[in-house]
Design brief:
Keywords: Membrane, Transmembrane, Transmembrane helix. It holds the Pfam family SSF. It comes from Zasmidium cellare ATCC 36951. Belongs to the sodium:solute symporter (SSF) (TC 2.A.21) family. This protein has helices spanning 12-41, 48-53, 60-70, 74-87, 90-116, 123-131, 133-166, 170-176, 179-217, 224-231, 234-237, 254-273, 275-283, 286-300, 302-318, 333-337, 341-390, 396-423, 428-439, 443-451, 457-483, 488-491, 494-506, 508-518, 552-555, 558-585, 587-591, 599-621, 623-638, 659-663, 665-678. The chain has 679 residues and is mostly helical. It has one domain (12-423, 524-678): Sodium/glucose cotransporter, CATH 1.20.1730.
Amino acid sequence: MSTSSPPPALSQGVGYGVVTGLGVAFAIGMVIVTRLLKRHFGEDNETTETFAVANRKVGTGLTASAVISSWMYSTALLGAPYLTYWYGIALPLWWANGQSTMICVFAWLAIESKRRIPNAHTLLELIRARYGTTAHLIWIFMCTINNLLIFSSMLVGASAAITALTGMNIIAATYLLPLGVVVYTYFGGIRATFLTDYIHTFIIMIILVWFTIKILAVKEIGSIGALHDALKPLGDQYPVEGNYKGSYLTMTSNESVYFGIIHVLTNFGVVFLDTGFWQKGFAAEVAAAVPGYILGGNAYFAVPFAFGTIAGLGALVVEESPVWPTYPRRMTAEEVSSGLVLPYLSQAIAGRGGAAAVVLIVFMACTSITSAQLIAMSSIFSFDVYGTYINKRATNKQLIRMSHVGVVGAWLVVSSLATGWHEGGVDLNWLLYMLGILICPGLFPTAFALVWKRQSKIAAIVSPVVGMACGIAVWIGVSEALYNTATIKSLGKTFPCLYATVASTFVPLPLTVVLSYIFPDKDFEWADLLSIERIEDDEHGKVSSNATRFDAAAYFAPDKVAYMKRMSRIAFYVGVFTFLAQWVLWPLPMYGAYFIFSKGLFIAWVVIALIWLWLALFVSNFLPLIDGGARKIWIVLTGRTELPSAVDSPQGSTGVVTPEHTETETKLGQQAEVETKAY
């Protein structure tokens, strides 16, 4: 039986046309939009505050949409279906809770950042202000590693999928996929990221909804009940090791649980160390941070849950029919681990149109994440390297120039790294499993930097370094112990990655606590973090007329501090509840029940997943329009101008300094100082 790859469903011209042509179209469109925003709303992307944090005025709807888009990795769209194909119905639930939970938890960090570092542009500014140069350099390394691995793994999966569908050269795809994004991010900054996130997610969600319906309606399946009936015998024909009775229709799946542990720990590390997530938190309005992240996090759950379930299980059934590209053989392990389940499924159920749809969503997902990652990495370079160690008196114009250099440099470095993965035989599956080993050591120290006053400088410096060293040692040691070797193949297996990720995550926790009590920093106060300042000068070295200026007296007025504290408590409890509900109370009892889904339960399960997906479509596509987006579009169409307020303010207020503020400025300033020290 031949194991050669099936011919591409689309021509190379389609591949190059989408990757370059659509990329250029988006670039031109976003440059135009950026200029319209400057003309009608005074949002000048040539000022650092606008370029880096969108003047901290992004509303709830756009924040929620951006959160969904931030997780809309091509790795998720390709990975959830292929792992479901391997391990069955339990896997997409573990994938979903491994990406939704930490976003809801991050809502707490987002509002805490509003309370304690209201002027920050990057996570690394917090680290430097609190722990100094050595810790700052360590976090620069960890955050850069985080962004490099996430960005490059996405390019590995996306370029492999586009090559399989179009025959496009894989190296060309790796370099050209981000190119259009480089152009509009260069000109538009994080505001362009939010807008393109919205547009990309709008298109992706519509296609995902169409795909799920198309898969269930295709004649090889026909209905949800028929999908269940077709899956039952496949557990006997191709039993899944570690699953109850080898079934694809059981929650008792050892490999799914192992993956779930790796996935949830890795993604906590990804979110907490990804400066892009922090920047979107900084960019959100105070009133938008908590609801935006909670709405977005819970809405995103439906993407891997619904799409992974239907696409992965549907592929198992359709693969048995002549419409499957590799028929009569099953896919090889290499094809599956490269993320080709979805591309092959799309060809089988919808021919060239289906293949084109996958090329489009992979392109959209890839470029959306690329924009966020480029902003994150360029900000590290401009703020935390250039502005901190090369030119300590950098002006706004110089920082913008270095941000532009960082955008282009990040593209070249990450595309080259992804090319190295390709050439070295590293695939999407290997990267998904090993990411947490290098990312997770900074998880607890990063969170404690913002929410735990007692974490000391020595603890912050030592604990992530020791955690990373332990994780790497366990990774190599377990591989040697179990497989008598430490090759790329053995290091990518489940148990070396599982034990190493757990070690790198949890070793820093007791270590930072113990060291903080042994070597305390007694003089630290939360108010010390207000030393982080905004960059308010324009290209001429003067304060921009439309800059969002920080008035500490107004910002830290007692009622506003009380509001932020209340939202912080809400975010904390919602985060804890989300973790318990999605990670403990739902999947674990079902794992221990040792049962196979009945037809009725399976139908209910898929229907709930579909309803959840439609709700996610509403949050991502229509909530931003309801929450001010439609009004801004109308303002642009009618040619009106609406300048932003000059003073930042919580709770979505106007931000105008009233006479009362002016008369009591001294008193409020004193109250602000007391409040900041209190929390």
